[in-house]
Amino acid sequence: MTNSVCVFCGSAPGVHEEHMKVASELGALLAERGLQVVYGGARVGLMGAVADGALARGGRVVGVMPRGLERYEVAHRGLTELIWTEDLHERKRCMAERSDAFVVLPGGYGTLEEMLEIISWKQMRMIDKPIVLLDTQGFYQPFVALVAEMTRQGFAHARADTLFTVTSRLEDVLRALGVATPPPPAGDEVQS
């Protein structure tokens, strides 16, 4: 059962406004479904948009930040909980332990490193948790092509792409996480 979702994403906003919009909408959607958000702890970029989107809907948001990154990522001081770690390794371990599933938004080297580590953990059966890549603006299409090429050249198993789900639609994120979509409000039923 999914109660807590880790979101990996960039501490920069990116060049497309849609990245920030989708990050905020994802945070709001997770909060509306009663899911706790666990993320990197920054108040800037996509990280801040996810946190603020969830907080605006009354969601519980846990930030996990290494002490050495505070001056670069600017810790979000309005979170439900802010956990300080000694380094990036401890940060990732803490985030994974506190989460039942993972959603990966666009980001830089750190986001890609987090994504690849969690996919590797799943491949090695260290975890069995859903992983969803939210493909805003086609951001993860080059990665999908790389996985296909690794498979073609014999460096990944033929079913390597089943370790994660790629979607560009927020509605599909909930399904991939195993979160039931609520029924329509009363009065919206289809009459026959």
Give structural notes.
Helix 1 runs parallel beside helix 2. This protein is an alpha/beta fold and 192 residues long. Strand 5, helix 5 and strand 6 form a beta-alpha-beta unit. A seven-stranded parallel beta sheet has the order 4-3-2-1-5-6-7, with helices on both faces. The protein contains seven helices and seven strands.
Record field, number of beta strands = 7
- Rg estimate, integer Å: 17 Å
Strand order of the largest sheet: 4-3-2-1-5-6-7
Termini separation comes to 34 Å
Write down the overall geometry. globular
Outline:
This protein has 192 residues and is of the alpha/beta class. 40% of the residues lie in helices and 16% in strands.
Give the topology, please.
Blueprint: E1 4-8, H1 17-32, E2 36-39, H2 45-56, E3 61-66, H3 70-73, E4 81-85, H4 88-97, E5 101-104, H5 109-123, E6 131-134, H6 141-152, E7 165-167, H7 170-177
Parallel strand pairs: 1-2, 1-5, 2-3, 3-4, 5-6, 6-7
Primary descriptors:
192 residues, alpha/beta, 7-stranded parallel β-sheet, 7 helices, globular
